[in-house]
Automatic annotation (TrEMBL):
Pfam families with a match to the protein in the record: ArsC
GO biological process: response to arsenic-containing substance
The protein's Enzyme Commission number: 1.20.4.1
CDD domains, alphabetized: ArsC_ArsC (cd03034)
Protein name: Arsenate reductase
PROSITE patterns hit by this protein: ARSC (PS51353)
InterPro entries: Arsenate_reductase, Arsenate_reductase-like, Thioredoxin-like_sf
Family: Belongs to the ArsC family.
Gene for this chain: arsC
One example GO MF annotation: arsenate reductase (glutaredoxin) activity
UniProt KW keywords: Arsenical resistance, Oxidoreductase
Lineage: Bacteria, Pseudomonadati, Pseudomonadota, Alphaproteobacteria, Acetobacterales
Swiss-Prot/TrEMBL catalytic activity: [glutaredoxin]-dithiol + arsenate + glutathione + H(+) = glutathionyl-S-S-[glutaredoxin] + arsenite + H2O
Gene3D superfamilies xref list: Glutaredoxin (3.40.30.10)
């Protein structure tokens, strides 16, 4: 099973998710998204794979989210994904991709639904 983790090593939840994946016997592809940000096309592909939505991928606790008005009603998925592509700090962490789908894994045990 191929699993990809969009990871921020300074995030405790991301570290916990990585440990859960490895404890399941899977060595995931780890993408440090602040160093290697996903493109807009990659973000759109993640949303198409589902069940994660554009809003699920948005880190609403990040100050920049409010500064850009992304927390307002009526903001489109396209606007959210464009903002994340331009500002990877807005990516909710960690995002995990497996054959079972894509999820922002907060809390960490959410990742278990994506593993065999």
């Amino acid at each position: 099973m191929t699993v990809t983790v969009y990871h921020n090593p300074s995030c405790g939840t991301a570290r916990s998710v990585l440990e859960l994946v490895r404890n399941a016997g899977i060595e995931p592809e780890v993408i440090q998204y602040l160093k290697t940000p996903p493109t807009l096309a990659e973000l759109e592909a993640l949303v198409r794979q589902g069940p994660a939505t554009a809003h699920d991928l948005l880190r609403t606790k990040e100050k920049l989210c409010a500064e850009l008005g992304l927390d307002q009603p009526g903001v489109t998925d396209a606007a959210i994904l464009q903002a994340i592509a331009a500002n990877p700090v807005l990516l909710n962490r960690p995002v995990v991709v497996s054959p079972k789908g894509v999820k922002a894994c907060r809390p960490a045990d959410t990742v278990l639904s994506l593993l065999p």
